[in-house]
From TrEMBL:
It comes from Geobacter pickeringii. This is Peptidyl-tRNA hydrolase. InterPro entries: Mito_Transl_Release_Factor, Pep_chain_release_fac_I, Pep_chain_release_fac_I_sf. It comes from the Bacteria. Belongs to the prokaryotic/mitochondrial release factor family. Residues 103-114 have a biased composition (Basic residues).
Amino acid sequence: MTTTFAVSEEKNRWLREKMAELGVTEGDLDEHFVRSSGAGGQHVNKTATCVQIRHRPTGIEVKCMKDRSQSVNRFLARRELLERIERLLKGEAPRDARTEKLKKQKARRKRRASGKYENNG
């Protein structure tokens, strides 16, 4: 049985092919659903749209709550998981989410600061 998600058939096909290429099966995945947090109001507070996936062989965990749809989040979580597995197989260092967030904040502050004093020449 192949799992399909609420995304285009092209994206579902890409996901199946990528999983086969990396040797990842649905049986390797532990999937849990929890309530999302943040914007979305009553809908988000009542439904378990946040998806947590763990790849048992590698121990990689992914949590996704980008969309209000559980099905879309399941697709996005799998896509992120496959990207991380691919980086692991290539020997690249795993990205730390906290470090990435701090880098983005620093860049944003720098852009805002440079624009603030540009016109006051």
